[in-house]
């Protein structure tokens, strides 16, 4: 019996390779998009460093430094937003600041999970608190974001509408005011944290990695086809 080599075109392997290449190139392209976004973010943060604070208005843009006076903010009711800062898990304390032009959600700062105490709450207190901070947009939810627990005042996404509802506020301003100045100077556990402590930018490295894997896979596939044809 004569044994013949199988010279049929490897359709299954070709389809698998094409799918893998599409995924790898897609991941590389996504990282390039993230790179552009991160570079824009870093540019705006750099411009923010020396910017003077201006009074808040409903037209104030993201990544601007503003001032706002809030009645009773030091003892205002709050909800908690899960966060990680400097490698530590904790909560961000968020309260509502009513103004004649609308309600602004104030991110008063970060409290580490190792601290069980929280700022005092007295809804009757109307002592004005002047806040200087940075306006930031909310965060998009993803499939890994846990569901909020509004009945417990616990949130996992910086969603203005959801957090506003948790504070009994309708139609809050879309941008959060991330406090740079302390709303509770007597309570050091509450750390004003308007911006991430460190912002890494390795997206180009990640993109080159995905594109490099795609190129390697294409070379291996081409070498396999060449060897089959030679044999």
Put the structure in a nutshell.
The chain contains 3 helices and 8 strands.
Summarize the helices and strands and which ones pair or pack.
Blueprint: H1 11-49, E1 54-55, E2 65-71, E3 79-85, E4 88-99, E5 102-112, E6 128-136, E7 154-155, H2 160-166, E8 176-179, H3 203-230
Parallel strand pairs: 1-2, 3-7, 5-8
Antiparallel strand pairs: 2-6, 3-4, 4-5, 6-8
Catalogue the unreliable spans. Answer: 1-5
What percent strand? 15-25%
Number of helices: 3
Compute the CA-based radius of gyration. 26 Å
Commentary on this structure:
With 231 residues, this protein is α/β, with parallel strands linked by helices. The protein has two domains: 11-39 and 204-230; 53-179, no CATH class. Helix content is 32%, strand content 23%. The protein contains three helices and eight strands; from the N terminus they run H-E-E-E-E-E-E-E-H-E-H. It has helices at 11-49, 160-166, 203-230, and strands at residues 54-55, 65-71, 79-85, 88-99, 102-112, 128-136, 154-155, 176-179. Strands 1-2-6-8-5-4-3-7 form an eight-stranded mixed β-sheet, with helices on one face. A hairpin with a 2-residue loop joins strand 3 (79-85) and strand 4 (88-99). The radius of gyration is 26 Å and the shape is elongated. It starts with 10 loop residues before the first helix and ends with a helix.
